[in-house]
Design brief:
about 45 residues; mainly alpha; about 75% helix; about 0% strand; globular
Length: about 45
Amino acid sequence: MFKKTRVRQIIELLQKNLSDREISGVLGVSRNSVARIGQSSDEHRKE
């Protein structure tokens, strides 16, 4: 599990339209983790 600050960083970079691959390279996390957090944040925005 990531710290909240890492999740916020991922969400901010996703909002700047960086790809999952770019974000994973910058932050040193897996692309799957970036995708999972992106999906989760999308689901929360829809509610």
